[in-house]
Write a structure and sequence with these properties.
heterodimer; A: alpha+beta; Methylamine Dehydrogenase, Chain H; 4-stranded antiparallel β-sheet; disordered N terminus; B: alpha+beta; 5-stranded antiparallel β-sheet; 2 helices; 5 strands; cell projection (chain A); flagellum (chain A)
Chain lengths: 766, 96
């Protein structure tokens, strides 16, 4: 924008310059001496959006001396008015002008000249200032000057409304013509291949041929020589680009093969709970990190295992509920069982090693003192001395202490399980009994305890169903327990309600396998019991319950020799038509044959099929026969003991015993063959227990153990596969003793008993 | 429940048992007979150890799983029974 000043004008007043809007350029020529009065201009000085609206633009007016309006028209394009300009914020300049204009407008016409002059000078200065301002501001694009609110138009305006469309009625429509421009060709590369059918094809072909020939002749031609040139290689320019750094996070996981297996096998719903538990997972890992653990949890990245953790722990808030939850779970009880066994095994490890026949190792880090060195030297000397019994441990638990032990038996399938029956009827009124199943793995607590309603007199494990234990009781009932079940449901059969049950104490129960000719399968097992009412009965689990069938009823035999005793016997005959049967044992190979021992000292050989008669009678004892047992190594040989202080060795079909053993004047309560050695058996008297080794002596027991004072020994058992003897006493303890220095080795087994028997001079006569 | 309690008490009263700790899945000892610092130390260390042992066992055969871990040291034996991410820890001195 220009600023033109003529000298004449200078003299007069300050020249109004053209303002930035270019609404007008004043050129006052020299020739005009007229006083040109400037009117204050109201216009906005700059801004692209602003417009010179006609109504409020009429500030600048040029009047000559004759009051003619000679306001020059605007030369440059004017801006369109913005109808909404009223609301736009005003700039300082506009305000300034506004006030000036207002002042100006309010004046009357009469004062116009003077006021105009005044105003013009005032406004022109302001214009110039604003012009300056505006000029300086014009370069800025973002100048916020807005249109000035148009004051009411005072003067008529030069119509400068539209930019390029003057004199048109806004209401009139106008035509818009759309035309298409010519196609611009941006890139045109002519092809180097033309079709054979094209017009210039022949010519091209000719040229090609010509060129090929030319190339061939090029080599020898003198017109052409090879030259090399070098092209300029543009200098590379380095350009730098800057980007945001890609942040990287290290993530690793260890894929173990079990992790993959778990992912395959886990059910689908584990995945659903995974999202819910993810937060817990993070929380927990954070917790663990807070504890500054170098734990594995963050490293292995096995989220599935931790999800399982979270699943088990998500809802447990307190330690107590946690504990309950853990404690009640079955796997915990399993673990507890195993843990207890392990702890006990740790304690008894040397004893168990001795039991099993393993060498007993001394702990090298043990803090005990060392009398062991002394012991060992003495032990070597003892090597050739008498066989002894070394006490290993005792099966006892608080529940069983104080009860009298009446019977013990090993499990037929698992030789580590021992069943012990407790019962006491010596005081007249029989007390409730107990059956405990001990395991060699837990010597301090019986893992199965079954209370019985009556004193237990005998026990036997089934061979076909190793979990079934038959129990005979003092009140005549026979029960079968399933020791695999927990306490409540263990008793699977009870003869209490059976009509034909025994009325007298059951003295022995035994499982025996009967021969089944029909099928080649495992032979059926039959439970046979003998009791004080003289009956030998076979028990069956029928559909309607537990029932029994009498095999035989043992009646009292009239012994001719006893007849001279006279009336006494007759009375006995009348009163006791049956004889209590105290023991029974089945032949190991021929299961149809069994031997029973009775109250009156006789032993009968009976047959399973014959229920009326005995096959044979063995008469030797004159007191109740307490135990009969067949030898497992020698068929047809059995041992019997009775209250007449003797033990007799019999052979089948020989009516007199082959050998007889006596040591003390005390009734023999029980005898047992050793399952390991054919010549060893143990016998228990009231106050002592003896182990006889027939290979070393047939007159005296090889080892004797005296019971503690106040305690009577009730039962004895020998362990299979181990040189140990178990003795049950009336204090409720089953003590295990190791047979030391017994030289009944395996070398001397075969045929030796026969030799011994034959060596005995003749058979013992009555 | 009473059985389990009884068994736990029995274990604790066996000869040579120094202490028992029951740790839940979070690694927090739930029941213990030792003092706090020892308990938390054992719980923390044995948890990672058991996880490592279990990982070793299952790596060889994924269908197998760890049932029991015994660490025999000069002074005593630490026995850990893991199940369901809980741990039952018993420390025993067997030759006392």
């Amino acid at each position: 924008m220009e600023k033109e000043m003529t000298p004449t004008l200078l003299s007069n007043s300050f020249n109004g310059t053209t303002n930035s809007s270019g609404s007008g350029e004043f050129k006052v020529s020299r020739r005009s001496n007229q006083k040109i009065k400037f009117a204050a201009s109201l216009n906005h000085n700059n801004s692209d959006k602003s417009s010179n609206s006609v109504p409020h633009k009429k500030a600048i007016k040029v009047l000559d001396a004759q009051r003619r309006d000679v306001t020059p028209l605007a030369l440059g394009p004017t801006r369109l008015e913005e109808p909404q300009s009223k609301k736009k914020p005003l700039s300082l300049d506009d305000l300034f002008f506004n006030t000036g204009a207002n002042i100006f407008k309010s004046s009357s016409v009469a004062d116009v000249a003077s006021s105009r002059l005044f105003c013009s000078s005032f406004s022109s200065m302001s214009t110039m200032e604003s012009g300056l301002l505006s000029r300086s501001c014009k370069t800025e694009d973002s100048f916020p000057l807005q249109d000035v609110t148009p004051p009411p138009p005072a003067h008529s305006a030069v119509p400068l409304e539209r930019k390029c469309l003057p004199e048109e009625n806004p209401d009139q429509g106008f035509d818009v013509t759309l035309t298409e421009t010519d196609t611009f060709s941006l890139l045109d590369i002519s092809p180097t291949i033309i079709s054979e059918d094209a017009e210039g094809a022949e010519a091209v072909k000719q040229r090609n041929i010509h060129y090929a020939e030319f190339c061939k002749s090029r080599m020898a031609n003198d017109n052409y020589s090879e030259r090399s040139t070098q092209a300029f290689v543009g200098e590379p320019k380095t350009k730098h680009v800057q980007t945001n750094k890609n942040s990287s996070v290290n993530k690793s996981t260890t894929a173990t093969s079990w992790d993959m297996y778990d992912s395959l096998c886990k059910p689908v719903d584990a995945g659903e709970t995974q999202e819910a538990d993810q937060e817990d997972y993070f929380v927990s890992t954070k917790k663990e990190k807070d504890k500054a653990e170098g734990s594995l949890s963050g490293d292995t990245g096995s989220t599935l295992s931790f999800v399982v953790e979270m699943e088990t722990c998500v809802d447990s808030l307190t330690a107590e509920s946690d504990q309950d939850k853990i404690v009640l779970s079955e796997s915990f009880q399993n673990s507890l069982l195993v843990m207890e066994r392990v702890v006990v095994l740790n304690i008894f490890q040397p004893m168990l090693a001795a039991f099993r026949g393993l060498p007993v190792l001394k702990d090298p880090y043990s803090t005990e003192k060392k009398p062991a060195a002394m012991e060992q030297s003495t032990e070597d000397k003892d090597w050739f001395l008498t066989p002894t019994l070394e006490r290993l441990w005792a099966f006892a638990c608080p529940l069983s202490i104080g009860r009298n032990i009446t019977s013990m038996t090993w499990n037929k399938r698992n030789p580590d399980i021992l069943a012990v029956g407790y019962g006491d009827w010596s005081s007249g009124s029989p007390k409730p009994g107990l059956v405990c199943c001990w395991s060699l793995k837990n010597l301090m607590w019986s893992e199965r305890i079954f209370p019985c309603h009556s004193s237990v007199t005998c026990l036997d494990f089934s061979a076909n169903n190793p979990g079934q234990l038959a129990v005979g009781m003092y009140d005549g009932s026979v029960a079968i327990y399933n020791i695999q079940a927990k306490n409540q449901v263990a008793c699977i059969a009870n003869s209490r309600d059976t009509s034909k049950r025994h009325q007298q104490p059951v003295w022995q129960v035994i499982w025996t396998k009967q021969q089944l000719q029909l099928s080649g399968e495992e032979r059926d097992e039959v439970l046979v019991s003998v009791s004080g009412d003289g009956r030998i009965t076979k028990w069956l689990m029928l559909s309607d319950g537990f029932n029994c069938i009498d095999l035989m009823v043992v009646k009292r035999i009239q012994d001719r020799k006893e007849k001279p005793k006279g009336n006494q016997e007759k009375i006995e005959n009348v009163l006791l038509p049956v004889t209590p049967v105290l023991c029974v044992d089945f032949h190991p190979t021929d299961a149809g044959i069994y031997v029973i021992g009775t109250w009156d000292g006789r032993m009968h050989k009976c047959s399973f099929s014959n229920s009326a008669h005995f096959l044979d009678t063995y008469n030797k004892h004159f007191s109740p026969v307490t135990q009969v047992e067949w030898s497992r190594f020698y068929p047809d040989v059995f041992l019997s003991c009775s209250a007449d202080w003797t033990i007799q060795l019999w052979q089948l079909d020989t009516m007199t015993p082959k050998m007889s053993f006596t040591s003390v004047q005390s009734p023999v309560d029980s005898i047992k063959w050793s399952p390991n050695c054919s010549m060893v058996f143990a016998a228990v008297y009231r106050q002592r227990m003896e182990v006889w080794d027939l290979s070393s002596s047939i007159l005296l027991p090889t080892a004797v153990h005296h019971a503690e004072p106040g305690v009577t020994l009730g039962s004895v058992l020998l362990a299979k596969g181990s040189d140990c003897v178990l003795v049950g006493d009336s204090g409720g303890r089953v003590t295990v003793y190791k047979l030391k220095n017994f030289r009944a080795g395996k070398q001397k087994q075969v045929n030796n008993l026969d030799d011994i028997m034959q060596a005995v001079p003749g058979s013992l006569n009555d | 429940m009473a059985d389990v309690d009884e068994t736990l008490k029995r274990i604790e009263s066996h000869k040579g048992v120094i202490g028992t700790i029951l740790v839940n899945g979070d690694g927090i000892p739930v029941r213990t007979t030792l003092d706090n610092s020892t308990t938390s130390q054992y719980a923390r260390l044995l948890r990672s150890f058991t996880a490592l042992a279990s990982s070793a066992v299952r790596d060889v055969d994924p269908q197998n799983d760890l049932t029991f871990v015994r660490i025999r040291s000069k002074k005593h034996e630490i026995m850990v029974a893991p199940e369901n991410n809980n741990l039952l820890i018993v420390i025993q001195n067997p030759c006392e």
